[in-house]
Specification:
Keywords: Cell membrane, Membrane, Transmembrane, Transmembrane helix
Strand content: under 5%
Radius of gyration: 21 Å
Helix content: over 70%
Subcellular location: Cell membrane
Order of helices and strands: HHHHHHHHHHHHHHHHHH
GO biological process, one term: enterobacterial common antigen biosynthetic process
Membrane topology: Multi-pass membrane protein
Main location: membrane
Structural class: mainly alpha
Length: 426
């Protein structure tokens, strides 16, 4: 089958348009949120929020058992067999709910231990982890619902949920920060989860009724075993990445200042705004299409389409951002973040190679190549850790983004080398 009959120009345009609109909303709400955070809590508060976000991201990944891509693949391939799919969805729903409740309990009783890792000596913020513990199951189920909807290729519904989430998150953050300052900013990180859960559950339960979900659950170890490779791959990255970024922020705070750590976090927030365009396309469009293909030639055709139609546009966006960096800082942040301008060049370079690596790295999930995934990811984590360890004491926050760019350049080369036969022999 010609892959271009499956992936029409009209399809790509529709998905890109929806994705672009979602990103536009995200940019607007992100801009307002960043401005409020920068104005009311400053660089030091942004550094603390960065650590808390990394920690909650880690908990979400562990709570979902890292099987989101496995769930997506199962739904995309078996959505016609409703009996089998209902059994699968019911099993995963209860597995994730019970596991997330277990993690929440551990976090609630161990908040002082985890608080030291996130907030260092500022123990007055430890109680905020109780909010994280309470809302974690809602966030885990929300991520599960989104994955299922994505497996059905319900791009519009997923986009609408994202838009609702961005707007509500902004309103909650603004309200909490206005009344409670840094405490409100930290609490708002987790509170949004409940409303996101309500949005996604509305569409999810239209597809799977309460009767289906609350029917008797049959434990199926064979099904769970089939998800193990996805879980290992996702958890390896999803657990180590937040830990590594917490390490980097804490090292910057130790070697320079907590304000410098906040500059680094501000740069990551800005990066997250524009990188969402490319990551959304890969997650919501290219990954499901790769999963549906059967031949290597089709996979290469989809990958080629990504590089020809997405990367050039992304490169132009990065160039534009570099030449308008002072304006970006002025709009998104405050004068306290002026030093962030020194971080743009290396961050943008790293993001370019990250974008180049994204579609190749996704192949590991599609072909379930656990060995290759762990090998290449280990290389990237090791490079980032070692480079940061040596460069941050010398160059401060700039050393962190130099390490970031170096990591993704080497990671991209590692992926090209690993997939060289598929790339050059097709």
């Amino acid at each position: 089958m010609d892959v271009f009959k499956k992936i029409t120009q009209n399809q790509l345009f529709k998905v890109t348009s929806m994705s672009s609109f979602s990103i536009l909303v995200r940019l607007i709400t992100g801009f307002l949120s960043s401005k409020v955070i920068a104005y009311f809590v400053g660089p030091s508060g942004m550094a603390l929020m960065g650590n808390l976000r990394s920690f909650t991201s880690l908990l979400e990944s562990v709570g979902t058992l890292g099987i989101q891509n496995g769930v997506l693949q199962n739904v995309a391939k078996n959505h016609q067999d409703r009996a089998q799919l209902n059994h699968f969805i019911r099993l995963i729903f209860w597995t994730l709910l019970l596991f997330s409740l277990l993690i929440s309990t551990m976090l609630f009783f161990g908040n002082s231990y985890f608080g030291k890792m996130i907030f260092n000596t500022q123990s007055e913020y430890n109680f905020i982890l109780n909010f994280v513990a309470f809302f974690l199951p809602f966030q885990v189920l929300h991520l599960f619902f989104i994955t299922v909807l994505n497996g059905f290729s319900y791009y519009k519904k997923v986009t609408l949920i994202s838009i609702y989430g961005y707007v509500v998150s902004l309103l909650i953050s603004f309200t909490f920060i206005w009344y409670y300052g840094i405490f409100g900013a930290l609490v708002s990180v987790s509170v949004t989860s409940l409303l996101l859960f309500l949005f996604s559950s509305f569409y999810f339960f239209k597809e799977f009724s309460f009767k289906i979900i609350f029917s008797r659950v049959q434990i199926d170890f064979a099904t769970l075993k089939g998800l193990i490779p996805f879980g290992i791959m996702s958890l390896f990255t999803a657990v180590l990445t937040p830990i590594l970024y917490i390490f980097v922020r804490n090292l910057i705070a130790k070697e320079v200042s907590i304000e410098a750590s906040g500059w680094f976090e501000a740069m990551q927030r800005i990066s997250g705004f524009y990188f969402m365009f490319i990551s959304t396309l890969v997650s919501f469009y290219f990954l499901p299409e790769l999963i549906k293909t059967n031949s290597e030639s089709e996979k290469i055709a989809i990958t080629t389409k990504f590089y020809k139609r997405v990367i050039p546009t992304f490169a132009l966006v990065l160039i534009g951002i570099y030449f308008t960096k002072d304006f970006v800082i002025q709009i998104l942040l405050t004068s306290d973040f002026y030093q962030v301008r020194e971080l743009f060049a290396w961050q943008l370079l790293g993001d370019f190679f990250k974008g180049m690596s994204l579609i190749l790295g996704i192949r590991f999930y599609v072909v379930k190549d656990l060995k290759g995934y762990l090998l290449t990811e280990s290389i990237s984590f090791l490079v980032f850790f070692i480079a940061s360890w040596f460069l941050i004491p010398i160059f401060g926050a700039t050393g962190a983004v130099i390490s970031y760019a170096t990591t993704y350049f080497i990671y991209f080369l590692a992926l090209v080398f690993y997939f060289r036969k598929a790339i050059f022999n097709s």
